[in-house]
Design a protein that fits this description.
six-stranded mixed sheet; three-stranded mixed sheet; 4 helices; globular
Length: 160
Amino acid sequence: MAGGSPRHNALAANVIAALVLEFRGKPCRVFSSDQRLAARGTEQYVYADVTVVCGTLRIQAGTTDVLENPTCLVEVLSPSTEAYDRGLKWEGYRSIPSLQDYVLISQHLPRIEHFKREPDGSWHYRVAEAGDRITLSNGATLVVDEIFAGVVELADERRS
């Protein structure tokens, strides 16, 4: 989200930092919110706050910058985008065959929601709160307290 609040940006940066450390020496890459993604083939182009690709990057034919094979997408929820992140955007993300994990980060309390694709194609939903962690399909973990460290005291977008 271009122009996100300090809290939004700090949370996204903490997720990126945690995942970069988790993937050191592994064939996974972490990308910021500038990375364009293809959802529903060529029907929808979107940007996630954090994108992970494990394995070989697949770039959409005819482009130089559109990823087709994210394995994990992370969105930091904002009042202006939460309904889209949970609705139409999530619907588009579910159409990406390579996607294994969809992670939603609250800006207002230490809470991470995790949708994990099961072998049968269904999605398992789990919530992690303070003191807890989630484990992604690729084995990486996100510790709630670490993601929210230093962020709580930043201005809350709802009150600014």
